[in-house]
Amino acid sequence: MSENNTLIKIEHLVKAFGDNTVLNDVSNHIDAGEKVVILGPSGSGKSTILRCMNLLEMPTSGKIFFDGQDITDPACDINKIRQHMGMVFQHFNLFPNMTVRKNITLAPLRTGLMTQEEADAEAEKLLRRVDLYDKADAYPASLSGGQKQRIAIVRALAMRPRLMLFDEPTSALDPEMVGEVLNVMKELADDGMTMAVVTHEMGFAREVADRVLFCADGIIMEEGTPDDIFNHPKAPRLQEFLSKVL
Ligand code: ADP
Ligand code: MG
After folding, report:
1. Which of 103, 104, 148, 194 could link 92 by a cystine bridge, Cβ 3.0 to 4.6 Å?
2. Distance between CA 67 and CA 54 in Å, rounded?
3. With contact defined as beta carbons under 8 Å apart, do 158 and 192 qualify?
4. To 5 degrees, how large is the angle CA 134–CA 136–CA 140?
């Protein structure tokens, strides 16, 4: 795909925690509309890559570009950039002391993106989309894990992000709730959202990913289409990984 279609670009990313170099010269990019799934063993740096994309983690060296802008430049207003990147975590991270509606409207209101009326209308639209409008006035504690995660997704969508980052969004869920969350993510993918998804759901990766990245030993060891990665893996580390998860 053409360079000027690139939404996020990672250039020579190095991330060390003390003397533990977790990412060692990672370069990649995600094009607008592309769905990228990131696989790899536990501790291989998958979360760190995602968190560097929105600077929740500061790269030790290397650059991250969002829509052509170097967001690792100290002059860049990262809070402004982060508004364009929604993130969904394994453990939902909903605000427990706020209703579902407030969880969703908070950021669009705080940032001035929407008026109260607009934010309420958007929250209603999003909640209907995930079949949870009846929970608008409920508190997170009263929801199932699957419901919480669907709310976390629409809360991120309320900011109308250009990129969605998912860090193992179904890993904390009981098995019977995984499907409802993956379905919301598939709909989002069908709608054309640009997505980077860390997941162990291989069915999702096969079905949704345009490109799969396999992380190991601090690098992206292999990348390709789902067919390349699942049916023709080259690196022995990837073959070993797949033999355990498939
Ligand atoms: P993954 O998501 O693939 O399981 P992570 O990106 O969470 O891997 O972590 C990669 C490595 O970085 C692990 O060794 C982890 O212990 C380490 N690490 C991650 N975050 C921190 C942190 N904030 N401080 C110190 N070490 C960290
Ligand atoms: Mg992780």
Report:
1. 148
2. 13
3. no
4. 110
The residues placing their C-beta within 5 Å of ligand 2, an ion, are 47
Q: Which atom of ligand 1 is nearest to the CA of 215?
A: 3
Total-model pTM: 0.97
Q: How far is CA 55 from the centre of its chain?
A: 13
Q: Where are the domains of the chain?
A: 96-160
Tell which residue, 198, 192, 190, has the closest CA to residue 89. Answer: 198
Please write the tens of the pLDDT for every residue from 195-221: 999 999 999 999 999 999 999 999 999
Q: Are 136 and 100 in contact (CB under 8 A)?
A: yes
Closest CA to 36 of 196, 187, 219, 220: 196
Backbone angles phi, psi at 243, to 5 degrees: -65, -25
